[in-house]
Amino acid sequence: MNYAKPEVLIDTESVSKNLQNEKAKVVEVDYDPENGYRKGHINGATLIWWKRDINDPVTRDIVNKKQFEELMKRNGIAENSEVVLYGDFNNWFAAFVFWIFKYYGHENVRIMNGGRKKWELEKRLYTTEEPKVIQTSYVAQPPNEGLRAYLFDVKRALDKKDTVMVDVRSPKEFTGEITAPPEYPMEHAQRGGHIPGAQNIPWATAVNDADGTFKTYEELKQNYAPKGITPDKDVICYCRIGERSSHTWFVLKYLLGYPQVRNYDGSWTEWGNMIGNPVAK
């Protein structure tokens, strides 16, 4: 596929043949584990439940360094483990967890191309048996803030010509016609619309509808470059709560090789609720 960093992807066939590798840790990341992991998962896979495991239970934030370390221990992941992530929703949430792995310095992590969707289309085996996990010790790296954008970064970017923003939500969210996707009707912002100057390139335009795999390098390049999202720019991706934008962050940074890409996980629920923030429609 000629991706800039092809090593961040692994295909379903390779995962299937590598399940006996004790060094490799397969992890399913789900928004809805009751309709995913609990009904059946790849043999040996542990679960990271997006809502419970990767978000701080009190503050609207991702887990801190200590919480991430505890999560790794519970999943039997060591600092040198080879980790394969896959999940539901065409790997939305797997991409978010990949971003957090990189944020805390875990080097050897990949995404299974196509996620649950492709595995099931190929009628590969699942199990409902949960693996017995041997807890590890784990020490994460300090957060890599170069991968994350905050509210003040976005406000500064409004006046910087070398910074571009990618709004990966649906066109109706971008225009303000709706303030949340139909499947998440309670997660609204006070204002609809988008950050001024942002380009609307929905996350799903980066994947093949048929099996959830990523499009080719050339197809992806044509998806972003004509709208001014080019590798010479500082790119900030956002959506509603940061999960869809992490998918686009992954595409731009690893598949296309853009040197400076950040995920704004505050996203529209922060921007659209803040007093004084400009909103475009």
Structure notes:
This is Sulfurtransferase. It comes from Candidatus Nitrosotenuis uzonensis. Keywords: Repeat, Transferase. GO terms for molecular function: thiosulfate-cyanide sulfurtransferase activity. Residues 20-128, 159-280 form the Rhodanese domain. The protein has 281 residues and is an alpha/beta fold. The protein folds into 2 domains: 6-143, Rhodanese-like domain (Oxidized Rhodanese, domain 1); 146-271, Rhodanese-like domain (Oxidized Rhodanese, domain 1, 3-Layer(aba) Sandwich). Helix content is 27%, strand content 14%. The protein contains 10 helices and 9 strands. It has helices spanning 12-17, 50-53, 65-74, 92-103, 115-121, 151-157, 171-175, 217-224, 243-255, 267-271, and strands at residues 9-10, 24-30, 46-49, 82-87, 109-112, 163-167, 199-200, 234-238, 261-263. A 5-stranded parallel sheet has the order 1-5-4-2-3, sandwiched between helices. α4 (92-103) crosses α9. The longest helix is centred in the last third of the chain and has 13 residues, at 243-255. The chain starts with 8 loop residues before the first strand and ends in a 10-residue tail after the last helix. The mean pLDDT is 95.
How is this structure best summarized?
This protein has 281 residues and is of the alpha/beta class.
> Tell me, what is the CATH class of the largest domain?
Alpha Beta
- Number of helical regions: 10
Distance from N terminus to C terminus (CA atoms, Å) equals 36 Å
Main β-sheet description: 5 strands, parallel
CATH structural architecture of the largest domain: 3-Layer(aba) Sandwich
Name the poorly predicted regions.
Answer: none
Secondary-structure class: alpha/beta
CA radius of gyration: 18 Å
CATH domain fold name of the largest domain: Oxidized Rhodanese, domain 1
What is the residue-averaged pLDDT? Answer: 95
Proportion of residues in β-strands: 5-15%
Portion of residues in helices?
A: 25-40%
Write down the secondary-structure element order.
EHEEHHEHEHHEHEHEHEH
Strand tally is: 9
- Count of domains: 2
Q: Outline, from the CA principal axes? A: globular
User: So, the CATH homologous superfamily of the largest domain?
Assistant: Rhodanese-like domain
Strand order of the largest sheet: 1-5-4-2-3
Keywords: Repeat, Transferase
GO molecular function: thiosulfate-cyanide sulfurtransferase activity
Domain Rhodanese: 20-128, 159-280
Protein name: Sulfurtransferase
